[in-house]
C-alpha cells in the first residue's frame, strides 16, 4: 500500500475504499481518493501554507470517521484543530488522478479581494458564502494563503492574552476610532473605509480613504499587520495610479500612506523613493513616522 507521511503527525495511506487520512489517534477515509501526483502536490502545498490539520474538532463528523469505511468524499485542511476549515475539495477523478475546484472558507473574502485572488461564490449564494476557486488556481491560491490572517477562522472569540493587534482589521478600527489623535486629522477627514478601487463585488479595496476638505487632496492609507514588505509599497502605488485615472480624483493631489507594526529599512527606503509616507503603529494606536 502507498503511504505518505506529512508534518504534524499526518499519515495518508491508500486502502481499498480510498485514502485513509490519519492524524494523531483519529482517522477517516476520503472515499475513492488516491495518492496521485496531483494529490501529493496538493497536500504538500497545503502543509507549506500552514494548513497542517486535516482532522479537526467535529470535522469530519464522529460517525464518519474510521473504522467507518464509507468515510467522506472530500479532503479538507485547517490551520489548527480548533478553527474552521480553510479549504475543502470534494471532487476527485480516480481515472486521471486529478482533483477538482477548491472551496475556500468565505471568511477569507475580504483578504481574497484585497490580494486580487480569483474566485466565484458558490452557485447557491451569488453575493456571499464560500469562495470557489478553479482547479488551475488552487495551488497559486494556497501559496498566497501564507500571507493571510487565519484568525478569521476562529470558531469563537477568545480573550486577548497580551496587548497587541491580532488582525489588520483591529489596526484599521484603531485608526478610525482614534482618527482625531492621528497626524492625518490636521488636514484630512475620513471619506470611507474599504473603499472599492475598481468597483464591483471583487474590487480591490483601500483600507482608509481620506480627503482634505479645503484643498481637495486625497489620502490613501494601506494597513499591514506585523511587518510590511515591498509588495505593500507597490500596492499603494497601484492604488494611487488607479485613482489618478478616475474623473472623481482629477482635482487635488493623491498621497499614499503605509501603516504597519514593523517596517524594515529597505521598505522605508522604497516608500520614500515612491513618495509614500510610512508609519509604524504600536498598541493601542500610537503612530510614529519612519519615512
UniProtKB/TrEMBL annotation:
InterPro entries: NucS_C (IPR048301), tRNA_endonuc-like_dom_sf (IPR011856)
MF terms in GO: endonuclease activity; nucleic acid binding
Transmembrane intervals: none
Coiled coil start-end: none
Annotated ranges, domain Endonuclease NucS C-terminal: 190-289
Signal peptide (UniProt feature, chain positions): none
Protein name per the record: Endonuclease NucS C-terminal domain-containing protein
Amino acid at each position: 500500500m502507498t503511504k505518505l507521511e506529512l508534518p504534524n503527525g499526518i499519515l495518508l495511506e491508500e486502502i481499498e475504499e480510498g485514502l485513509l487520512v490519519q492524524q494523531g489517534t483519529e482517522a477517516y477515509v476520503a472515499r475513492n481518493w488516491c495518492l496521485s501526483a496531483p494529490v501529493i502536490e496538493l497536500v504538500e502545498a497545503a502543509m507549506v501554507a500552514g494548513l497542517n490539520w486535516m482532522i479537526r474538532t467535529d470535522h469530519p463528523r464522529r460517525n464518519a470517521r474510521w473504522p467507518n469505511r464509507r468515510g467522506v468524499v472530500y479532503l479538507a485542511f485547517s490551520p489548527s484543530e480548533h478553527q474552521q476549515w480553510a479549504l475543502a475539495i470534494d471532487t476527485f477523478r480516480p481515472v486521471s488522478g486529478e482533483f477538482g475546484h477548491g472551496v475556500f472558507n468565505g471568511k477569507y473574502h475580504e483578504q481574497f479581494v484585497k490580494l486580487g485572488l480569483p474566485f466565484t461564490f458558490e452557485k447557491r449564494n451569488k453575493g456571499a458564502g464560500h469562495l470557489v476557486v478553479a482547479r488551475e488556481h488552487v495551488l497559486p491560491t494556497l501559496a498566497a494563503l501564507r500571507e493571510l490572517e487565519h484568525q478569521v477562522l476562529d470558531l469563537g472569540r477568545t480573550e486577548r492574552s497580551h496587548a497587541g493587534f491580532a488582525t489588520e482589521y483591529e489596526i484599521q478600527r484603531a485608526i478610525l476610532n482614534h482618527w482625531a489623535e492621528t497626524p492625518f486629522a490636521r488636514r484630512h477627514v475620513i471619506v470611507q473605509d474599504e473603499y472599492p478601487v475598481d468597483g464591483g463585488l471583487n474590487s480591490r479595496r483601500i483600507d482608509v480613504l481620506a480627503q482634505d476638505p479645503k484643498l481637495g487632496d486625497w489620502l490613501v492609507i494601506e494597513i499591514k499587520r506585523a511587518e510590511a514588505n515591498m509588495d505593500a509599497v507597490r500596492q499603494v502605488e497601484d492604488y494611487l495610479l488607479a485613482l489618478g485615472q478616475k474623473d472623481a480624483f482629477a482635482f487635488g493631489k493623491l498621497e499614499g500612506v503605509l501603516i504597519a507594526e514593523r517596517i524594515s529599512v529597505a521598505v522605508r527606503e522604497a516608500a520614500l523613493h515612491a513618495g509614500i509616507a510610512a508609519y509604524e503603529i504600536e498598541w493601542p494606536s500610537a503612530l510614529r513616522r519612519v519615512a
